[in-house]
Amino acid sequence: MAKVVETWRGVAYPWFCDSLGHMNTQFYQMMFDGATFHFLSLIASYNALAGQQRSWADVRYTTEYKHEIRAGALLIVRSHLVRVGTKSVEFMHAMSNAETDALHATCSGVSVLFDLAARKALALDEAMRARGAALLEG
């Protein structure tokens, strides 16, 4: 079973809520995006990649909303790796209430290793693949 890692923790502030009284979708994506940065850094450090003119580029996100979030909710995102490809990784985030563990939303994503100068996807190196394999094994 894949290793599950805490990748984000915070609160749903009142200004995150819309006219319906629950957290607006833009803030789910903000939280999932932050979780993605933390999670992908386990495979390849952003600082190391930046020094090589490389980064991660998101190519797909699919979000499912399970249970609405109200202002003041304490939230946690846990993530796990689903697949390591030649140039990409697929991962899953689960956003839950930190106090009750109720599942609020999931987000599956795919990111590619990206050459910032050439503007194209790159193959993951052996060290990245090994770190990914370790995450898959738990």
Structure, explained:
The protein is α+β, with helices and mostly antiparallel strands and about 140 residues long. About 25% of the residues lie in helices and about 40% in strands. Strands 1, 2, 3, 4, 5 and 6 form a six-stranded antiparallel sheet that branches. The longest helix has 16 residues, at about 25-40. The chain is elongated and about 45 Å long. The termini are close together. The model has no long low-confidence stretch (mean pLDDT about 95).
Helix run count: 3
Main β-sheet description: 6 strands, antiparallel
**Distance, first to last CA:** 6 Å
Would you list the SSEs in sequence order as H and E?
Answer: EHHEEEEEH
User: What structural category do the secondary elements indicate?
Assistant: alpha+beta
Mean pLDDT: 96
| Number of beta strands | 6
Poorly predicted residue ranges: none
Q: Tell me the helix content.
A: 10-25%
Shape: elongated
Beta fraction:
35-45%
Radius of gyration: 16 Å
